[in-house]
Specification:
The complex is a heterodimer of chains A (305) and B (669).
Chain A (H helix, E strand, L loop, with lengths): L1 H14 L4 H12 L4 E4 L6 H12 L3 E5 L6 H5 E6 L4 E6 L6 E5 L6 H13 L1 E4 L2 E4 L5 E6 L12 H4 L4 E3 L6 H9 L3 H7 L6 H10 L7 H16 L9 H17 L7 H12 L14 H11 L4
Parallel strand pairs in A: 1-8, 1-9, 2-5, 5-8
Antiparallel strand pairs in A: 3-4, 6-7
Helix pairs in contact in A: 1-3, 2-11, 10-11, 11-12, 12-13
Chain B lengths: L7 H15 L10 H16 L8 H19 L4 H15 L7 H21 L3 H20 L9 H14 L1 H10 L22 E2 L1 H8 L4 E7 L10 E7 L1 E2 L4 E2 L2 H4 L8 E2 L5 E7 L6 E2 L1 E2 L10 E2 L5 E2 L8 E7 L4 E2 L5 H6 L9 H14 L3 H14 L3 E2 L10 H9 L1 E2 L1 H14 L4 E8 L2 E3 L4 E5 L3 E9 L3 E5 L1 H5 L1 H5 L2 H4 L15 H5 L1 H22 L4 H11 L4 H24 L8 H14 L11 H11 L4 H16 L6 H14 L2 H11 L1
Parallel strand pairs in B: 14-15
Antiparallel strand pairs in B: 1-5, 2-7, 2-18, 3-9, 3-16, 4-5, 6-13, 7-12, 8-11, 10-11, 16-19, 17-18, 19-20
Helix pairs in contact in B: 1-2, 1-5, 1-6, 2-4, 3-4, 4-5, 5-6, 6-7, 12-13, 12-15, 13-15, 14-15, 23-26, 24-25, 25-26
Classes of the chains: A alpha/beta (305), B alpha+beta (669).
Amino acid sequence: MLDTLNRAIASINQVVLGKEQQVRLAVACLLARGHLLIEDLPGMGKTTLSHALARVMGLSFQRIQFTSDLLPGDILGTSVFDKNSGQFVFHPGPIFAELVLADEINRATPKSQSALLEAMEEGQVTIEGQTRPLPEPFFVIATQNPVSSSGTFALPESQLDRFLMRLSLGYPAPAAEKNLLMGITRRELMQSLEPVLNHAQLAALQAEVPKVQAREAVVDYVLRIAEATRSQPQFAYGLSPRGALALLAAAKAWALLAGRAYVIPEDVQAVLPAVAGHRLRQQADAGGHGGAALVQWLLREVPAL
Amino acid sequence: MSASLIPRISLTWLLVAQALVIIPHLLHVPSWLIPLWLLCAVWRVQIFRQRADFPPAWLKGLLLLGVTAGVLLSHGTLLGLDAGVTLLLCTFVLKLVEMRKARDAQVLITMGLFAVVTSYLFEDSLLSFAYSLLPISALIAALIGMQQSSFNQRPWATWRLAAGLLLQALPLMLLLFVFFPRIGPLWTMPTADKARTGLAESMSPADVAELSRSGELAFRVEFDQAIPPNAQRYWRALTLEDFDGRRWSQAEFTRQARAPLPDWQAQGEPLDYQVLMQPTGQPWLFALDTAAPPDSAGRQAVDFRVQRGRPIEQALLYRMRSWPEAVRQAQLPSLQYRLNLRLPRGFDPRTRAWAAELSQRFGSDQQGLVNEVLKHFNQQPFHYTLRPPLYGQHSVDEFLFDGRRGFCAHYAGAMVVVLRAAGIPARVVAGYQGGEVNEAGNYLLIHQFDAHAWVEYWQPGTGWQSVDPTYQVAPERIEQGIEQALAEEGSFLEGDLLAGAQLRKLAWLNQLRLAWDDLNYSWQRLVLGYQGEQQMQWLASWLGTVDWQQLGLTLVAVIAVLLVLLGVWLVKPWQARPVAQQRYLLAAERLLATQGLVRDSGEGVRRFSQRAQVSLPAQAAAIKAFYREYEQQVFAAESVDEAALKLRYLRLRQALPWWQRWRGKKNAD
């Protein structure tokens, strides 16, 4: 099964060039049943990554372009009167897909954002008094544009906390970009991607993650990290217990990807920037993006053993 | 290496301590040590302020050479106590400018403590002990200051902490003081070769006059009974039997340690007393006649003096028993008989003629002859003075018949010459007479100015008889002391300003002086005198019989128990010990640390292992195996097998042989 997973990752890497680490983290996020926030400039391959992930994993894919006039109904779906049957028929919105790409999530109003985020958290949506389950697996990749943020509604910390990981893709390496420019277009490549995993296999893999061993030594390390964020003066606020849980879950998924049945501190360290980066703020600059520096501090200073 | 490694407080206290350590030594070290110290101190301060650099190696070598040459020039040698201490102080001072790391400062502080101890070799009075608390506490404060932040600005707080620590060490100090065995030659200290005032093996009148001008303390006596009257307190030191016409000296026969023991018979009531004598550099002790020393004190010599095997170089406390009415040598061996009749040829013809006349007049009535001589001193216009005229070649003649001015040495010497010339065996006894009673402590103080000489003559049957011609001339000298005898002349202690006669005239000042002496006496008796015999006796009175072996074992046992308790307290075995995996991990990391590989605190073992494998390709396999095993045991739920981890650790150690570790460590340093 692990071979299959590695083949899936290799396939995605054929499309998303030079981003092995981010692809791996995205897959780990999926395995840990978390949701992914990608924060990057336009045109960095966010959509490509999401799309490739959906295809390789054999997931149905929907994309929602968030705009300031987007309404919750546009995400969740609406009931429309069917004159043939004389009844209101529910037309499911784009959220009813297995992999949803919420593009530029910060452009929508908080009301629409909440609709998505609630669905993410609950795994179901309630429309017109009726609760409808979302498909299983359900995986949201939201993207944010850090620049040209006028007229946007930045996600508050409480919402950010709902994303297991936040990634930023960054510019590709020159060699990867050269390949990108010389090769055929991504869109055509995407068509040639074959699903590597089916739903059953993915579900089995997701079920494997909680079984990965996290012994006391690693749990203590996670606790030390959480404690450091709560006690050290440079942190505006500490990691929430959900954050600590997320860290451990992500580390387990990472260990699984590495083919290990137990977590080692290096797993925690590998996922820490993605898991904790968006949950931390610097005391000196509480509104800023200091999380990365804080994570580096944690990696350096918190004793691994 | 930056100069700021030694914090400000520490440096401050170190400089203060150096000054305090050096001050008491200034009496016996060359004065160029002061500018040397000032130079080094200023240099050190400039280094601290980063205005100067550490001296280069050649300059240090030059300084060392210069200092060695200086010691050689000042003392004439590099060996011996004085030169040794000077050398120690010089290195103590010079170390200041090459003090780079904390370790150097620790060396300096240790040297300082040692230098304080060496000052006790020169002066062990209560005052010097009290003073030495200052440099010691300053040194401890410097030691504490090394552990404090460079930003600490409060030197007095540091000193208070040091004083508190010293106070806490008090019980341990007392324990060691009481129980630590003073094992003979191991603990005998080298002695300062300073000139001492006191009696010598030979005596000319000028020597005694010199002694009479010194207010220095000779010894103290505490009687078990009431203090006998002044006129009975004749403290014998030695007898002078050889006369060369000018000087009296100890006879070779008498001096010999192998000389036979004299026979004598105890009579009357004995006197028991305890003497605490100042170091004299001479082997004889002071005692009243006729002394029967306990074995530990010394042994009786052929002329009834009490002698030790070695010169007394430290204050000595001994008990003594004397039989004032004893009959000494009813039979005189012929060798001693002849010895005590010998006179140099060609001296003092008038005295000899007078003696011959007396001998003829009294015939066999030798007692009458002695009385006649004493009467001569009494009735002729003799004058007791410390400023006698200088007598010529026939000094006895000129003294007896022309000058008639002199003091005890003149009278005793002249009388012995007369008696010998008249055929009566006689000799001069040198010692001390009288002494000052200290009411505060009920003991006697005998000073150098109490030095005295008197006469012993021998009669068949009755043995040696003591007689004091000075008494005939100046009875107040014997009954009230030399101060009274010289009251008119004003020559008492005229050369000694500090202990001067003026001080003794003010009653309250005199009281103060005696009280202070009482304190010093207690110090010497109870603290300095607490060794050897005294220690044994005191311990025996508390613990029953003790022997050194038992005492040593007890001491070792007590210290061992204390150390074990301290160890238990430090290790705290009741707290959870690190599990085996942690111990082996630490051991392995110590191994790798010798190669400069140190795991960062945030670094996991797997990444560190990979780093180590790259750095040490030769040991890569062993490193990998160890860390894999560790990871398996700690992070995977697999069997926790201590032995397997130990095996991997041992393999790793094998892969890194000791020389490689050692070399790596050296390179890392």
